[in-house]
């Protein structure tokens, strides 16, 4: 997947806290654990689960997660 985001870290999802509208995922990377808030709709559409390999992209105002 191509992206213009320059700050990216590969990792594995180690925890998911699913809420009604928003969810939190914890991703273990070489830099440590990164927590990201995403919509529960995105959690379901990406079918994210513990153990999935993902890429966390960070911008100065936001954090994005891409499923591999």
What would you note in describing this structure?
Helices cover 9% and strands 57% of the residues. It is mainly beta and 68 residues long. The N and C termini lie close together (8 Å). The mean pLDDT is 89.
Q: What is the fold's blueprint, element by element?
A:
Blueprint: E1 7-18, E2 22-29, E3 32-39, H1 40-45, E4 53-58, E5 63-67
Antiparallel strand pairs: 1-2, 1-4, 2-3, 4-5
Quick take:
With 68 residues, the chain is mainly β.
Characteristics:
globular; mainly beta; 1 helix; OB fold (Dihydrolipoamide Acetyltransferase, E2P); 68 residues; 9% helix
Which descriptor suits the 3D outline?
globular
Assign the CATH architecture: Beta Barrel
CATH superfamily: RNA polymerase II/Efflux pump adaptor protein, barrel-sandwich hybrid domain
Strand content: over 45%
Q: What is the name of the CATH class?
A: Mainly Beta
Fraction of residues in H or I helices: under 10%
């Amino acid at each position: 997947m191509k992206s213009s985001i320059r700050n990216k870290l590969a990792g594995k999802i180690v925890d998911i806290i699913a809420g009604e509208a928003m969810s939190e995922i914890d991703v273990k990377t070489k830099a440590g654990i990164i927590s990201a808030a995403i919509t529960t709709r995105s959690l379901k559409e990406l079918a994210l689960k513990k153990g999935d390999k993902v890429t966390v992209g960070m911008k100065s105002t936001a954090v994005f997660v891409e499923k591999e």
